[in-house]
Amino acid sequence: MNHFEYKDGVLHAEGVDLNRLAAEVGTPFYCYSTATLERHYKVFSGSFPKGTLVAFSVKALGNIAVLKTLAKLGAGADVVSGGELRKALKAGIPGGRIVFSGVGKTKAEMTLALEAGIYQFNVESEPELQALSAVATALGKPAPITIRVNPDVDAKTHAKITTGTAETKFGIPWSRARAAYALAAKLPGIKVVGVDVHIGSQIVDLEPFETAFAKVAGLAAQLRADGHVIERLDLGGGLGVPYITNNEPPPDPSAYGAMASRVTRDLGCQIILEPGRLIAANAGILVSRVLYVKQGEARTFAILDAGMNDLIRPAMYDSHHEIVPVNEPKPDCPRRRYDVVGPVCETSDIFAAERELPELAEGELVAILSAGAYGAVMSSAYNARPPAPEVLVKDEQWSVVRPRLDDDALFGSERIPDWL
Ligand SMILES: *Cc1c(COP(=O)(O)O)cnc(C)c1O
Questions:
Q1: Are 225 and 101 found together in one domain?
Q2: Which of 201, 235, 316, 370 has most ligand 1 atoms within 8 Å of its beta carbon, as the pocket-test mutant?
Q3: Domain boundary at 263, 279, 295, which?
Q4: Are residue 370 and residue 268 in the same domain, yes or no?
């Protein structure tokens, strides 16, 4: 469910006409819908027991205006760097609702997080435990931790976003989990509060989640028997979204919530979740203009002014994004097959291959859907292209929440050495 719909023949973001927005902002641009973000957050958090902490995964969509939108609903944040932590704090998310994940936290980042009084560190290795203990001891602030365990469960998602198998770098191997907790209990700067797991992203089947959660619940009981205080279960993010409108939809958040509650109920732990994609993906679109329609020998190319530097998911994850014209096509509009591509000088700069679409004309606006998560956050200035700006819409209001970079912002920080 989202709030991007045709009204009077023009695609709107809530009450905002995207033709008019494109005229004001220029293309390409990301457009986020407040109502959609809010709806996704409420449906998701409402699927879990009271007292659950829903920590939005900042890496999915880190714009501070978006974070503030969610913060106003009570969201916490799951951060994976000092930069994300600072953004979350700037958006008004209290330290006490922030969890810190990731395999490579630096001591400087640990210090920042301890000073901000974050809710917990999700620790991913024994050396990280030692380093965190040293930093926390020096500061005189014990670090609340969970250990992220790797349950060796195949999430049955794209290889680049599966994280809970023995071959990935994430979490402490299942066989060493109890020993790692024993180590944690001995370290002076560490305070054990729970267990953490995250098995991957864009998971469209409840079964791998249930397998992982059941294993973690069993481990949590064992850890209690070992004498540890286990009062929180962080179950990670990862619930998938429909990228193809007519496909079978992924599981409903309420089914996910019911399953997670059932599997973990006996422990009486607080549940923590770190959803990113589920909140953000369908709350954002990338609006772009068709620069040229080029007739190749074997294919017809619709060349957009957005490129892989703006949205890298198709190139990186072979992902599917629906593409729709901003001006609603007439029912009798002929359909053609296009390779929808960007201007970047890479063959992988392609949004859709041999996609059947209503006939596209030069100058026409199109919207690439489901682009809110892992879109703008992964954008770059490759080819010296300023990344697409971001616009946040609420009802009839809109605001540019990250402007297009001018030359000074784009390359003004580069320096020519004295000796050159
Ligand atoms: C990426 C990530 C998430 C968010 O995953 P989604 O699939 O976007 O919900 C949550 N937790 C951790 C540790 C992550 O790395």
A1: yes
A2: 201
A3: 279
A4: no
